[in-house]
Model the fold of this input.
Amino acid sequence: MKSDWQRAFNRISSKHVDFVLCTRDELSLVCAIELDDGSHKKSERKTRDDFLEKALTAASIPSIRFTAQASYNLQEVRSRIAEATGLDLQAAPSEPSSVQASAGKLTRDDAPRTCPKCASPMVLRKAASGKYAGKRFWGCSRYPECKTLLPVKEDSASQP
Done:
């Protein structure tokens, strides 16, 4: 027979958010960010999302939900984060060049993608070893459950 602790652990162990925003200096939690793709419309996923939202509220952690899409408007993202957290993001120091590049002109191959098999967000990765070492590719964010990979056309303008 399972203990109360084990039952509680099993209930929450698979719950997670897509991103957390932390302070730069102390890595203190600022808010949780969830990207809603098509799977969030399913009954089972709605139950999971409701549970997660209640847990975040009980822990006094602001949460923001965005509809998963190919690209995002940086000003809209900042505005939603500022609204949820009370932070003045317009006064933030300028972003590192890599953030400016990703917020500005993205080539079609650099634009965020959705997994064609499970509809989860794809993550831009770089092979560390093997035949394709150093090459970038899109990998499903649900890896290892979903092992979908997509190629990235490499050119000098799209290098990180």
In short: The mean pLDDT is 78.
